[in-house]
Structure formats: structure tokens, C-alpha cells
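Check out one such.
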Amino acid sequence: QVQLVESGGGLVQAGGSLRLSCAASRSIFSLSMGWYRQAPGKQRELVASIFSGGTTRYADSVKGRFTISRDNAKNTVYLQMDRLKPEDTAVYYCNRIPYYEIYWGQGTQVTVSS
């Protein structure tokens, strides 16, 4: 089992940037990892994926604006979010792909004002 702790969220104006971090309690170098988000009243969705070989994939809604990366030496996954929009407002979580229910952490709140 691995514990995941997300950080880096906050309040930002539209067009701004944030960098989220996901620190794992043990090595995750062999795992495919993802950033998910859940907006009020909506289902949780996968927005960015990074596979064990380094390949990345993005939801259409964030493609070209978000960048996922990983530092296996630090057991950390990052999400660089640029040109943020109000519709990006959500709680952001990291988890493996496919997700494990027991891996969900508290998430980090991202609020984008217009």
C-alpha cells in the first residue's frame, strides 16, 4: 500500500499558473500515475496520466495547458497547470492508474477566479 499526499493548490486568477505535487510514501517508479479532479456536483475525472515508461496523456479539456511529470528519485508526481480557467476549479487528487480506492488522499483545492 502507498500513501499519497497532494499539495500546491490555491486561489489563482484566470490565466495564472499553479504547480501541484503528489508525494508518495514509497517508490512508485513502476506505477502508472494520474492526476484526477472533482468539481462540485460532478464526478471525479482523470485529467493527466504518466505511465511507467514516461509516456503522458491528457484529457482534451487540459491538453496544451497542463503538464504531468514525475521524479522517481523523490517518489513524487507533479502537475504544472498553466493558463488556468474558472472551469479548472476542483479538488485535485493523484492516484495510480487504474485507481485504487484505498489510495485516495485528501486532495488539494484549486480555485480559479474569473
